[in-house]
Amino acid sequence: MCGITAYVGNEPAANKILASLKKLEYRGYDSAGIAFFENEKIEIIKAVGTISELEKKMQQKRISSNLAIGHTRWATHGKASLENAHPHSSQDKKVCVIHNGIIENYQTIKNELKEFHFASQTDTEVFANYFSKNLNGGYLLEDVLRTLGKTITKMKGSFSFAIMIEGFEDKIFFIKEKSPLVLGVGNGFHMLSSDEMALDEKTEQVVYLSDGDYGFISKNSYCILSNGKIVKRRKLPFTAQVQSVHMGKFTSFMEKEIEEGSFACFNTMLTLLNQNLQKLEEAIKNSQKVFVVGCGTALHAGEVFKYVLEKECKTDVFLDYASEFRYKKPNIDKNSLCIFISQSGETADTLASASYAKGKGATLVAVTNVKTSRITKICNIVVLTRAGVEVSVASTKAYMAQLSALYFLITIFGKVKNEKISFSPTDILEIYNQKKEIIDAEKITLVANHIKNEKSLFFVGRGLDYFLAKEGALKLKEITYIHCEAFAGGEMKHGSLSLIDDESFVVCVLTQKNLLDKMMSNIIEMQSRGAKVILFSPFSELQNKVFCFVPLKKLKSHLMPFVAMRPLQMLALKCCEQKSLNPDMPRNLAKSVTVE
Ligand code: G6P
Fold this sequence. Notes:
Blueprint: E1 3-9, H1 13-24, E2 31-38, E3 41-48, H2 51-59, E4 67-73, E5 88-89, E6 95-103, H3 106-112, H4 123-135, H5 141-154, E7 157-165, E8 172-177, E9 182-186, E10 189-193, E11 205-208, E12 213-217, E13 222-226, E14 229-230, E15 235-237, H6 253-273, H7 278-286, E16 289-294, H8 296-313, E17 317-321, H9 322-325, E18 336-342, H10 348-359, E19 363-368, H11 374-378, E20 381-384, H12 397-417, H13 425-433, H14 441-451, E21 456-461, H15 464-480, E22 483-488, E23 505-509, H16 516-528, E24 532-537, E25 548-551, H17 561-578
Parallel strand pairs: 16-17, 16-18, 18-19, 19-20, 21-22, 21-23, 23-24, 24-25
Antiparallel strand pairs: 1-4, 1-10, 2-3, 2-4, 5-6, 6-7, 7-8, 8-12, 9-10, 9-11, 11-15, 12-13, 13-14
């Protein structure tokens, strides 16, 4: 993954790069680095850890350069270490690069570079040396551009690069192939960034670079080439919200975002209700098959959608992880409706699946939180969620907004297919408006205290609740590092019950009246083996039947995810807080996974 940024302009570049890197930190945060010119030589500062570690090191030096490149890393090739942190230099130190993506054939290229010594395990350093070798001391601009063109055809994979070259103190070169890279235009400066929201707030226009583009930026100009020819790309007004997102009274972004989840549902639904739906209705009318694809939390929202749509509209849905979907070669054709759910709209597997479906002639719907993301460019119809910026890596309010958008879609399916749906958009608006939700924070804190030192936890539910259990387990494991696994209640007795003993804690979700007896039987089976059951449920009559009961408000059964999920998110957060871990930046993860 990683985030890259570059600035050349009138102002000192170091602070611009730092500010931009802070906004890109969601893309990875295991190490960071910056390169700039000093006395015509390229200087590099790197640090292991978050951007604040880099900032500390930068403060020890006066950096006056008006040109710099910066990187925040999520390790792909080689562990998180100073050697593997970007920027990387060519052996002769004349070329310095930062990179987002993966060069799939880097090993083959490395084998061709026998004369070079490599200081890191990264594919990026292979690029730096390959590029420098082919530059062959050529320090005319046309040599550099020709070499960039050659390099882009040599490398396989998805990548974007920003490159500094000794002798070109006024230019930053770039390459873009499948990994995101935008070019920002301002008065007296140009920037490059993996994400437009990390461009400087004074940016006036933005250019969305196309795959295969390469070129350079300087203070007052830029140049884009593709296949050896100069190309023009449209400049659009810079409208991205400048993200000065603050934690406010909260102690973490995750806490803030859980709080905002309810409004995210409301806001998403309200906005969708005011939109022209003709294209969407047409697409649903013409669809004979429905596919749902996503990763992580987004796919969990998709599972709820599939369950409810199948029940409410008698429409079968094929659902899969984006990383599996296209390899199964699903039977997609022009009568298929494929729904891609992605908060960021940049997840590599989801994008690749969307391209696959597009190639089969299907109609594509993107459910995403980012209007300018790549998924919106691939799909025919965009259903925007209105969660606002989600900073914390563990997705919370974006999931809630996805539920809202997906339930909205169900009502459209109902309308088109003439099926009576058990809920209406107004029901969802009212959850927020009429405060039809309770979160018993005290109880949840108590539960967190019980389970925080566990090595392993079980999450169990049936029907719709199984999908909530899966998302609850994902939240807890990703920020507490406790092994959490979700099971469908009825399946426990087919193997997994062997794991239960009198030390086991089991988090159960029971919101569906029709499954109450069956789920209670499963709970009793687990309790008979010694399990301590923590039950999230609106059925207060069950409170004395379990170790700990967390009450939920009672809504129509298919609406229960809207009141059950935030308490489960809160459980993960409380547990994380009690373990003194940082919920916003869990280890080994990143918010946007732009590698396959
Ligand atoms: C990463 C994030 C998850 C997210 C998933 C899909 O794994 O850490 O929180 O659910 O990617 O991301 P997307 O942006 O496609 O929804």
